[in-house]
Amino acid sequence: MERATEGATGPASAPAAGGSPRLDLAKTAPKVFRALIGFDTAAREGLDPALVELIQIRASHLNHCAYCLHLHTNDARRAGESEDRLHMVPVWREARHFFTDRERAALALTEAVTLVADGGVPEDVYARAAEVFDDRELAHVLALILTINTWNRVALATAKVAGTDPR
């Protein structure tokens, strides 16, 4: 399923704090936007949809992206995710029993890659992910982490407003 709504057109962009409205990437650079959609679609291929949403939710927390956080928590709910687990994502280390080994490894890797400037990706975090995911899965998990970080930056840079996604 294509994620064309991630940077949807319409009322999702607002003026930046004290500024004028921001550009709509989908309209202004449609080829770039379609490439991001293709990257996102390819990244999630073969991954468990619940894992996909957990990764996207955690990265969106870390990046303070309200637009994407709203979008992906709603997607997760529609896919059957429990409110308990959604509430525990920011504190997953303290609520380990809510998440599988694979989910915990993916959440740790999501944090390390999202916050890469804070010290790189620690060897133990990468090694743990490599233990629970085969090479193909790990490549897709990494690609998904990269795509959600890109979407977060698009939403933040273009001042997307949480709750305005047409879905």
Account of the protein in words:
- This protein has 167 residues and is mainly α.
- It has helices at 25-28, 30-44, 49-62, 66-78, 83-88, 101-114, 123-132, 135-157.
- Helix 3 runs antiparallel to helix 4.
- The chain is globular.
- Mean pLDDT is 90; it is low at 1-12.
In short:
This protein has 167 residues and is mainly alpha-helical. Helices cover 59% and strands 0% of the residues.
Unreliable stretches (pLDDT < 50, length at least 5) are 1-12
How many distinct helices? Answer: 8
- The overall pLDDT, averaged over residues, is 90
Largest sheet: none
Q: What is the helix content?
A: 55-70%
Measure the end-to-end span.
14 Å
- Computed over alpha carbons, the radius of gyration is 16 Å
Shape: globular
Summarize the helix and strand pattern as letters. Answer: HHHHHHHH
| Broad structural category | mainly alpha
Number of strands: 0
Proportion of residues in β-strands: under 5%
